Amino acid sequence: MPQYLIAIHHPDNFDPSTITEETMRDIGALNKEMMAAGVRFFAGGLQPETKAKSLRAQPNGQVLITDGPYLEAKEQVGGFWILEVADLDEALSWGRKAVVACRTPVEVRPFFEMPPSNRAINSLVATSLSAAPDLAWLWDSRPQLRWRRLSKPRAQKLRRRSRIHIPSSIRNFFLR
Questions:
Q1: Helices 88-102 and 21-37: crossing angle, nearest 10°?
Q2: Rg of the chain in Å (alpha carbons)
Q3: CATH 3.30.70.1060 in the chain, residues?
Q4: In three state form, how does the secondary structure of 25-52 look?
Q5: Distance linking the first and last C-alpha atoms of the chain
Q6: For position 11, what pLDDT does the model report?
Q7: Distance, CA of 66 to CA of 42 (rounded, Å)
Q8: Which CATH code is given to the segment(s) 3-110?
Q9: In CA terms, which of 17, 131, 155, 165 is 20 to 30 Å from 51?
Q10: What pLDDT score was predicted for residue 137?
Q11: CA–CA separation, 80 vs 159, rounded Å?
């Protein structure tokens, strides 16, 4: 299912102490409604922009770290939800509710969707490494060869080389 970012924008130099109890109750009620509807994938509030650090690559290969946000703007992202909903219309519906609850501007933006074959690689390598001690199967994108049998050491080497990190909670989910 597609994922959408619902970003809450606060004015520059926003003071969190100005948030009223009524606003907090409305945001809490919206969170409960999202969870009850099964659309909330993640939610989080951010510290003020004064606590941000910006990182920029330098021509010499070093990374420069500076205080403050990357862009100077009149508004900053103060928090966000990631929702899994059917389409943009449903995401906009939740965005409307967020504007009312938060009493600040909200941005709705879709995430890029990962092709199913890439998701299959991550989940199937995780499943096969956990379920079969002596072999692993890997999804291959070539039409003439969809599955390849790999030894466990080869699969682990491939996983390390491709930097696929698969938490045990996800591995366990596929083993249910």
A1: 160
A2: 21
A3: 3-110
A4: HHHHHHHHHHHHHCCEEEEEECCCHHHC
A5: 21
A6: 85
A7: 28
A8: 3.30.70.1060
A9: 165
A10: 43
A11: 31
CA gap 43, 98 in Å, rounded: 12
Given a cut of 70, whether residue 52 has pLDDT beyond it is yes
C-alpha to C-alpha distance for 176 and 173, rounded to whole angstroms: 6
C-alpha 69/C-alpha 76 separation (Å) is 9
CA distance 153 to 163: 15
pLDDT digits 0-9 by tens, 94-136: 999 999 999 999 999 999 876 655 555 555 554 444 444 334 4
Asked whether the beta carbons of 80 and 6 are under 8 A apart, the reply is yes
**For residue 155, what pLDDT band results from cuts at 50, 70 and 90?**
low
What would the DSSP string read from start to end of the chain?
Answer: --EEEEEEEEETT--GGG--HHHHHHHHHHHHHHHHHT-EEEEEE---GGG-EEEEE-TTS-EEEEES-SS--SEEEEEEEEEE-SSHHHHHHHHHHHHHHH-S-EEEEEPPPPPHHHHHHHHHHHHHHHH-SSEEEEE-SSTT--EEEEEHHHHHHHHHHHT----HHHHHHHH-
The pLDDT value given to residue 83: 95
- Structural tokens at position 35: 């969870």
